[in-house]
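Pipeline run #58 for the internal structure catalog. This entry was flagged by the ingest filter as a single-chain record with no existing model, so it goes straight to prediction. Upstream metadata was stripped on purpose; only the residue string is passed forward. Reviewer on rotation: M.T. Logging verbosity set to normal.
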Amino acid sequence: MITTEQEQVLRGWFAGRIPEGLFSELLDVTVDREEITVVGRIPEPDLGAEATEAERDASLEGRMSEFRERTREERIEVAREAERRFRRKVSWGVECGDKRAMYTTVSAPVMTRLRQPERQVLDTLIAGGVARSRSEALAWCVRLVQRNADTWLSDLRDSLQHVQEVRAQGPDTE
């Protein structure tokens, strides 16, 4: 698990290293064992008050696409440096208005052993057309738990952080 201090170091490094003006705001820097994800806000296109919802949606999609192409070289340069320094892949995302787009994120394989009742849950999701494979069904389940258990997971992460702090005070740390 990544400690709060390590997350702060990552966020600080990216805040200092990302070229000035790339984002109007650095929204999020998250990390796990495989990947660092950096998400920033970019300005919305100015369409005026008379623009329709369809025009707004299309303009946000267009702005995010334009940003991705225009900033590719800068983002690659920062990512390469970060990957050498932190030994993790870097993925990028952007928010524009109420839309979020993620660019080239890591999809890491995870091995697990499931008993028949758990496999039946996955197979039911496949039969119902929710997923095409057990792997996709399991990812769907994880996203569902993530969405519905934010408070519980947040409390668990806080508890794990406290355990890390207590361990750091132990006699074997130097």
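catalog note: DSSP finds six helices and four strands in the chain.
catalog note: The CA atoms of residues 45 and 63 lie 7 Å apart.
status: ready for reviewer M.T.
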